[in-house]
Amino acid sequence: SGRIDRGTVKIGDEVEIIGLKPDVIKSTVTGLEMFRKTLDLGEAGDNVGVLLRGVNREQVERGQVLAKPGSIQLHNKFKGEVYILTKEEG
């Protein structure tokens, strides 16, 4: 379960589970629930539970993303620059 950040999701949509693991899991939405009620469509801002065909609970981890196939790209690394304040700076 989780919050829909953008777009919509409906029963029958093809989706990918992306993030935290190197492999991408492809599945189909077979059901949507919000507060124990079934839905036909979930929209941005909704907190929903998504039922996925052929996906076990053990295959999904907190922090992974459900997305339309090909809509986002997985990144495992990033470059950053950090400045540590001195004691005098705060």
From TrEMBL:
InterPro entries: EF-Tu_GTPase, EFTu-like_2, Transl_B-barrel_sf. Gene3D superfamilies: Translation factors. Keywords: Cytoplasm, Elongation factor, GTP-binding, Nucleotide-binding, Protein biosynthesis. SUPFAM superfamilies: Translation proteins (SSF50447). GO terms for molecular function: GTP binding; translation elongation factor activity. The keyword Cytoplasm applies. Residues 2-67 form the Translation elongation factor EFTu-like domain. Pfam families: GTP_EFTU_D2. This is Elongation factor Tu. It comes from Lacticaseibacillus paracasei. The gene is tuf.
